[in-house]
Amino acid sequence: MVDLTAARVLVGSGLLKPARPDKLLGMVLAVARWGLTPATGYAAQAARQPRNPAIVDDEGVLTWREVDTRTDRIAGELRARGIAEGDAVGLLARNGRGFVEATTALSKCGADVLYLNTGSAGSQIDEVLTREKATAVIHDAEFADLLAAASRGRLEITTEQLAQIATEPGPGAPPKPAHASRQVILTSGTTGAPRGAARSGAGLDDLVSFLSRIPMKADGTTVIPSPVFHAWGLGHLSLAMVLGSTVVLRRKFDPAQVLADIQEHKATALVVVPVMLEKLLQADPSAYDLSSLQIIASSGSALPGELATKTLEAFGPVLYNLYGSTEVAYAAVATPADLAADPRTAGKAPHGVTLRVVDEKGKDVPPGESGRIFVGSGLGFEGYTDGSDKDRLDGLIATGDLGTLDEEGRLTVLGRDDDMVVIGGENVFVGQVEEALLSHAAVSDAAVVAVDDPSYGTKLVAHVVLSAKADAKELQEHVRAKLARFAVPREVQIHDELPRNTTGKVLKRELNS
Question: Which domains are seen in the chain, by residue range?
């Protein structure tokens, strides 16, 4: 039963609209054939808009019908080569048709897709493939050397080989699998080896929840430079499939290319991680016609308040920032109005999402007081594939962060619960110190870590990237003017750049080493 809020959201997105009977029948048959899997989306859109572009990438354009037909052939060949229902198959590919077609074909086989991080070391990939009992790995040819030691006798196929298979007659699509394909997304692994977080397909309630705060529209064009092996990029790839929107995917992130793609394809949405926003601002967006752009969706790491303000000034009121994680999916979304009122806010919970901030006893804290953040939605993960889990409370999942809720239900994230340090008996939230540093005109990037100190027990060390001249004393005084004395870093180290993973999160363990 669709409630009034859901109906309003679906109508507003353009998903609920009349369709020709023959097209509607084709979409229904696609769902009957493949169930709620990635295969369904491309088959359904092939019935509704066969000749419209589904993918634009470095190789050109593929229509919805072409993707559906090509993945039928690929799925048949994968099954013929021994990939069976329920098998775990690693996928190591950059943004492009190879990633999309491999995911869709494996879905048609009933195999589970294990998304591998293109920034991982060979030893990490080996560990993940072994732990997840992967029987095969599909990868871009450029990663062949990286996988040489990790393959260990597994069936190995390149996306380039799949592209050739897609053009040749073959056994055709396999029958509908009894096993529904699962998508296994790896955690970012900023503090250790990545772990698999399995989730099943999203339902209507989850779609409504997302669209209630980020009003994407059907039949648009979405540029996705954010890596699609990560939950944020993958979620938008799936959403575009449901909405019937064209996706623009490039193998490498190039800020000028992104802006040119928005202009050329009249893109309505852009999906980024925050570090990309800084690069896009440096590429001079005023030199491009971006008038078609309705939404910039940002997530994947913390969005500094200064960067939010600069983005709103440069692009207009189109920035939406989502706070969530691989484990909980989405927890809160800050709209352009939220960010204009408070650039540091993570926003409010979407429709149907439960958001709580609790104390050590699991009781809700009063507005303005800090506590642990717990989230519940239909997209929460089922637990890590190694058998471990996040803390849970009344069916909600811990994000691992501390935060506060205000009287209006807006969330402010203070930082990781393990990023709160005690200095001189006082609690210091590292994220607030980083925010203070980033508000200095000369600081373009910043990360703060706590290290052992023989005199003080613990001290803060700031690692910064400068865009103009500034010294340690000046930066320390800047923090002192904004925060308490005990929150001022005792050391400031200057870098050309900070180590980040492919989703933009700073690798603090490398700064500690």
Answer: 19-181 (3.40.50.12780), 420-512 (3.30.300.30)
Tokens at 435, concatenated: 């925010």
Distances (CA, A) of 169 to 63, 165, 465: 19, 8, 54
| Rounded distance between C-alpha atoms, residue 268 and residue 505, angstroms | 26
Q: Where are the alpha helices (DSSP H) in 51-96?
A: 64-80
Helix (H, G, I), strand (E, B) or coil at 513: coil
Please, what is the angle between helix 21-34 and helix 38-48, to 10°?
Answer: 160
Would you state the structure tokens that stand for residue 484, as one six-digit string?
């308490």
Strands (E), 2-67: 53-57, 60-63
476 near 444, Cβ under 8 Å? Answer: no
From CA 114, how far away is CA 467, in angstroms rounded?
39
Tokens of 181: 């394909």
Instruction: Give the model confidence (pLDDT) of 113-161 as tens digits.
Output: 999 988 887 877 888 898 889 999 999 999 998 888 665 678 999 999 9
User: What single DSSP character describes residue 190?
Assistant: S
Residue 132's alpha-carbon distances to 37, 125, 203, 511, in angstroms, are 21, 11, 26, 30
CA dist list (Å): 152 to 155, 156, 157, 302, 380: 9, 10, 14, 37, 33
Q: What is the pTM of this model?
A: 0.82
Alpha carbons 179 and 170: distance in angstroms, whole number: 23
Q: Supply the pLDDT for residue 8.
A: 86
